[in-house]
Amino acid sequence: MAEVFEMDSGAKMIAIKIGKGTLDTTKVLIFIDHDNKTVYLWRGKKAELFKKLMGTRVAAKLSHTYPKYRIRPIAEGTEPAAFLDLAGVKR
User: Fold this and answer.
1) Residue-range domains of the chain with CATH
2) pLDDT for the residue 21
3) What is the pLDDT of residue 88?
């Protein structure tokens, strides 16, 4: 099970559903993968710098909420297979 959030311009996490176009190059997304105890911070290539910075800050705060979870930052284009599967991307 995973929860997915998009960072908005106001540095808030907005819950979203995984679907077509989830990995939009202008977005910064946080995937909380409870099955694998991992928090993925995905940063699109064309995402605003502010969103990228806020995503990093939020991921760091989540490490306090989920102390046993690993934080995995991912730049667009370097996604591991496990993340692509979680995001529903067909390879």
Assistant:
1) 2-86 (3.40.20.10)
2) 78
3) 86
